[in-house]
Amino acid sequence: MPWKLALYREATFNAVLLLLRKAPLTFEQRRSVVLVSRDMSALVNVQDDSGVLVGNWSGNYTPYTSPSAWRGSGKILREYWESGGEPVRYGQCWVFSGVLLSVLRVLGIPSRSITNFNSAHDTEFNRAIDRYYTEEGESIDSGDSIWNFHVWNEAWMSRPDLPPGFGGWQVLDATPQEESPQGGGFRLGPCSLRAVKLGQRMNYDVEFVISEVNADIRTYIVKENGEKVLSRVNTSHVGKNISTKAVGSSAVNIVTNEYKFREGSASERAALLASEVQSEVEVEISVDKEVLVGHNFTVVVKVTNKTRKSHDYRVRIRGRAMLYTGITGQVVKSSSANITVRGSQSGEVSLTVNAADYLKLLEGGNFIHFVAMVNADNDVSAVETHNLRLKTPDISISLPPEGLKLYQPASLEVSFRNPLSKTLYNGRFELRGETYVQPATVTLPPVPPRSLATGVLTTIPVKKGSVELVVRFSSNQLSDILGDVEVDIAGP
């Protein structure tokens, strides 16, 4: 989803000046890009200083704006400025990053947004995510979590406060996660990217970022007597893909190797000092590669007996609705089964999940978190997890044969197939194209199950050039269906 930075609007400029006045910096300190950017990462969130955005991950945003509804920084910063600095509701990580990106660029600081998939949230700053499960497979809260994705910023600057060689790209994060160990407050950075890759402690907040991109996941099974048994250490799940937008195009630029050495290499392990755990039983969870929301699917748990003797296993599978931050909700479906697996062989247990099991329970992001707990007859246990994101259909966009011309009305035909076995009510398509075209909306009649939702969006181009047009569909039953197309707007 493109994010409009709104850099050249008067309200954006005034809002940034307001933030600069709120920053507890002397005029001399304002000469330091290190100090200014650090304070901006704090002021974009509301936690300590009546900043720009209130974070909300509850799923309940009424009567304010849902984080997924924002399309750029302009409206947020204008609302903040016009209210005299009243916090705007609500934001999540990509919104915090988009607003901070606008703020930094208005201040003349080169910056970009970064997305980290499988991002660790380490509350103890120990470069490890500890997960605890009962012998029945119930999760025990440890404070640590794995976000399916997290978005932060990088800014390019020199670091005269650090040893030579640690300037360049620096991580900044305005999303309020943990208070900074260096000076307190919900802020992060600037944190040298080179320090993160080398695993070196220095200002600011390097430990937290190292964990975000390279923490090990340590899984423990807690027995009835309270004993914690280390079941598994996963050294490669966190920081699976770190990327940003390429310069001059919408292509994805992978920057994972700028944050860490290749997974499993001697340098990567030396930077983290991880350990391996051997187990007598191995558990794998697999799901169909792509599951469209509204459809049934099957989860398969594969149990591999790594001993030479035959063993009996109790296999429990449980799926829960999950937010992208890793917080789980209600149980979608669960089952258990007993299997016998010969030595050095594998056995499988499957769970069929119907659309009716999950549709009313899904929260933002359409994620389901599965846990498989395996207990053997020799008192050996193992646990595995799997996060499934249900795919939503893409919107098809048909442009007029003559293309788009400046100041000439243009009609776009848009459509997608309702994947649900229920009717969609209060559906509408919305068109956005930065400042190049006028916004457009069309309201739809009820869309029957599995049928095609169609509409015509009429807009007027008001600026020449190349632009990515984005169409979004929302309804009471299904939302955040997206489609996009690149167009060239010609002159009159």
UniProtKB/TrEMBL annotation:
Name of the protein described by the UniProt record: Protein-glutamine gamma-glutamyltransferase K
Domain Transglutaminase-like: 85-176
Top-level taxonomic group: Eukaryota
A Pfam family assignment: Transglut_core
Coiled-coil intervals: none
Molecular function in Gene Ontology: protein-glutamine gamma-glutamyltransferase activity
